[in-house]
Design a protein that fits this description.
This protein is mainly alpha-helical. The chain has helices at 2-20, 24-55, 61-81, 89-115, 123-157. The longest helix has 35 residues, at 123-157. The radius of gyration is 21 Å and the shape is elongated. 19% of the residues are buried.
Amino acid sequence: MNRFFLLLLFPFFGNVALAQKLSPLEYHDKIISITDSLHEKGMKWGQVLNECSQTQDCSVLKEARLEMMKLIERKIKEIKQMKDVGKGAGELRDAMIEFLVFENKLVEDAFTPFEKLVPTSSQTDYEVAIANLNAVVVEEEAFMKKLDAAQAAYGEKNGFSIQKR
């Protein structure tokens, strides 16, 4: 009876084990797809910002910011738990984690000031919040370049190339 039970379970566990094995390209794609998710959340935040500029009630931005921060925190945990696949996987993983840590700080530091804007806020208050956001976005470019370099190196070490943005 025990053998029969084990034979029934083998295909299930065998498929689970196979599903967890990624090729280097799949590993890369899984890690880098996070940037697409972040972009979507950022676009959503931008849409809410545009709407709140009409109503002058920017407190509604908090929900979009918190959603983005939860996504970032969840993705950091996921990546830290991923097994390395291929040559240089640790460097790619570390570059993405560094990028996500920066993104979390960006979202906290640059998005939160907008939530504090109220109908009585001055034009200067809006300009300061926008200038702060623009300054942090410039910093973001350096982290993106590091991530791009880690991607290219990982691809080269594992026999595939990465399209430049």
